Structure to design on (626 residues):
């Protein structure tokens, strides 16, 4: 967004970068080596043969260096980065070692920041606020607010983001967005930074700025690896090492200056009209023979054609001994701190969504007045007793349709942000889920009480505090359970599928909810079991018992016959005479818990499914893939 416009300003912002090298905290050096990495996926369809994405590639990426992974589209760049980051482990063979020892994935996750291609940042927050949240979560309870602020200031200055610190994340330029994605991960000073296509969608100047930042980060002793599409020649010179892939094999591994000799070693001359990097990508694109010839020369990445220039030797000499920082291998913040920080962030975002709040207030007010008007004054009228049943049903339907769709539509986007932050170990899933569960409660309670208050009053229901409270609790619990169901749907499906599934769920819930009402006690027992699937039914029964049970006779305006003078007659005809308010509320509460549990497990599965080794779970994941 706005990338071109921000360019000149960014150049000015970024200039002092190189002069800052001496003042920045050192990080322990981490070298990553991989040998004979193979990765296959099983495509959808039970009989589909495994598809090989990476074939026995090897290589080594060192600390203090900026490495680029390049290659034609579909060559396996992102896949290699995902595997190196530990984001994908299932279906991978070969070895990955860190500083000469086999990679311990748990330890590695804590040292590594992975900035994925889709730089989704939480909305409705300023750059500064987002950085402070990151600092609170990543630096932990033992670091004072002042120190956190200092760290944030230093990083914003280093990455040239000072001028937009009060700008909301949705309004910053594309280049600033990329740098902010890096900035939030830098607060705990990770020694390894992996970036997937950090320059995509940026103009040349913005690309230059980003790569300048990465160069500085590498110069401070970090291992910085990024996948990149064909960068401009000026930018290309900034990479210390390049790793070219084609069709899942390594066709070049080494410094830029050695590409031409490498091509020449298999009899390919790079024309003067091409840059070597462009040409190697072009000749290997779709040309398996050429790719395998080039790959053989460097043993599929095992050999490194590094021109050991003076510049390179000096860099290693300066930064090789940066071993001072001790890594914290636990979450730096406690469960409750994580919850409080996340909850405060969610409430801040909610409170800033003025349009959303106004719309919800409007829709609830309209619904309340509409329901109240449609069923106006029926509360104590024996001839309108059935109307009271429809009133309860309508209130329940309102809460279902209002609270089912919103999470089903909004959560698929949220989960992408969660994926990035969770993978980079900002917080645990439990405090996050607790915060998500409670985030909407204040608004839900306020608007829910408003609807019940207005409708209860306009329909002239009994003026009894207990009855009113029971009725209100029923409405609110239905809303909470339904929101949980929407969250479960949003956690499993993408927006398009989620909307379909949510609508498809709502229809049978309503049908089963009203089935048999009016038959009295003649409903078949198997149907009673099936009807129990509809949690809405428990809500309707609870609402009816709240209003009708243990109540005096209705007003009867008909002289001779008044069928529903006794409220129990209504309950009897609906098959609710022996219904217990507390048991129905308990059932509703159990459903609310089950829906949240499903949502939690679905989110956990989505976050960790890559670590699974089961083919079946892979297959299910594939079906549900977004
Ligand atoms: N889960 C998967 N199922 C099937 N094919 C896959 C899967 N993951 C990756 N691939 C295939 O593997 C190949 C490499 O994908 P990858 O995303 O790593 O390429 P890339 O080099 O990063 O491409 P681009 O530059 O276009 O992003 C592609 O052909 C892709 O379709």
């Amino acid at each position: 967004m706005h990338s071109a416009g921000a360019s000149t300003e960014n150049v000015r912002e970024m200039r002092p970068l190189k002069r800052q090298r001496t003042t920045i905290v050192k990080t322990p050096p981490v070298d990553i080596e991989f040998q004979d990495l193979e990765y296959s996926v099983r495509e959808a369809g039970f009989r589909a043969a495994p598809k090989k994405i990476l074939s026995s590639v090897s290589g080594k990426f060192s600390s203090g260096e900026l490495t680029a992974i390049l290659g034609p589209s579909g060559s396996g760049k992102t896949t290699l980065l995902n595997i190196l980051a530990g984001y994908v482990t299932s279906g991978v063979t070969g070895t990955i070692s860190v500083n000469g020892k086999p990679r311990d994935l748990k330890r590695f996750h804590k040292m590594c920041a992975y900035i994925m291609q889709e730089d989704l940042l939480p909305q409705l927050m300023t750059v500064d606020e987002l950085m402070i949240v990151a600092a609170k979560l990543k630096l932990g309870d033992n670091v004072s607010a002042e120190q956190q602020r200092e760290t944030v200031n230093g990083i914003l200055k280093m990455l040239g983001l000072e001028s937009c610190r009060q700008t909301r994340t949705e309004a910053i330029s594309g280049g600033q967005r990329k740098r902010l994605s890096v900035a939030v991960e830098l607060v705990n000073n990770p020694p390894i930074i992996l970036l997937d296509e950090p320059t995509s969608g940026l103009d040349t100047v913005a690309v230059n700025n980003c790569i300048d930042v990465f160069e500085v980060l590498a110069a401070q002793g970090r291992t910085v690896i990024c996948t990149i599409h064909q960068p401009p020649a000026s930018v290309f010179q900034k990479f210390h090492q390049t790793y070219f892939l084609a069709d899942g094999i390594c066709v070049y591994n080494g410094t830029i200056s050695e590409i031409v000799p490498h091509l020449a070693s298999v009899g390919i001359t790079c024309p003067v009209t091409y840059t070597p990097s462009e040409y190697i990508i072009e000749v290997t694109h779709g040309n398996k023979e050429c790719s395998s010839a080039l790959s053989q020369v460097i043993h599929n990445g095992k050999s490194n054609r590094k021109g050991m220039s003076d510049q390179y030797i000096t860099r290693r000499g300066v930064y090789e001994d940066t071993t001072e920082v001790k890594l914290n291998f636990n979450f730096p913040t406690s469960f409750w701190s994580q919850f409080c920080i996340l909850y405060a962030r969610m409430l801040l975002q909610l409170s800033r969504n003025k349009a959303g709040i106004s719309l919800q207030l409007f829709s609830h007010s309209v619904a309340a007045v509409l329901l109240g008007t449609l069923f106006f004054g029926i509360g104590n009228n024996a001839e309108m007793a059935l109307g009271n049943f429809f009133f309860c049903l309508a209130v329940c339907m309102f809460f279902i349709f209002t609270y089912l769709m919103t999470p089903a539509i909004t959560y698929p986007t949220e989960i992408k942000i969660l994926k990035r932050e969770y993978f980079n170990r900002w917080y645990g899933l439990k405090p996050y889920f607790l915060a998500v569960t409670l985030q909407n409660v204040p608004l839900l309670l306020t608007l829910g009480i408003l609807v019940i208050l207005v409708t209860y009053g306009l329909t002239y229901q009994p003026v009894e505090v207990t009855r009113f409270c029971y009725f209100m609790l029923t409405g609110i619990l239905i809303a909470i359970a339904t929101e949980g169901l929407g969250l479960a749907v949003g956690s499993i499906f993408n927006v398009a599928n989620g909307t379909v599934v949510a609508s498809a769920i709502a229809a049978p819930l309503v049908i089963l909810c009203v089935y048999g009402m009016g038959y009295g006690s003649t409903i078949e027992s198997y149907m009673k079991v099936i009807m129990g699937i509809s949690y809405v039914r428990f809500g309707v029964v609870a609402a009816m018992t709240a209003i009708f049970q243990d109540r005096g006779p209705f007003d009867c305006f008909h002289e001779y016959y008044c069928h529903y003078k006794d409220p129990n007659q209504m309950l009897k005809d609906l098959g609710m005479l022996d219904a217990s308010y507390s048991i129905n509320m308990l059932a509703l509460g159990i459903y609310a818990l089950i829906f949240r549990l499903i949502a939690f497990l679905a989110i956990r599965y989505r976050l960790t499914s890559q670590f699974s080794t089961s083919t079946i779970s892979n297959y299910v994941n594939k079906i549900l893939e977004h």
Remarks:
- Residues 32-121+189-313 form a domain with the Rossmann fold fold (CATH 3.40.50.300).
- Residues 41, 43, 51, 53, 71, 73-79 surround adenosine-5'-triphosphate (CB under 6 Å).
- Confidence is low (pLDDT under 50) at residues 1-25, 308-326, 611-617, 619-626.
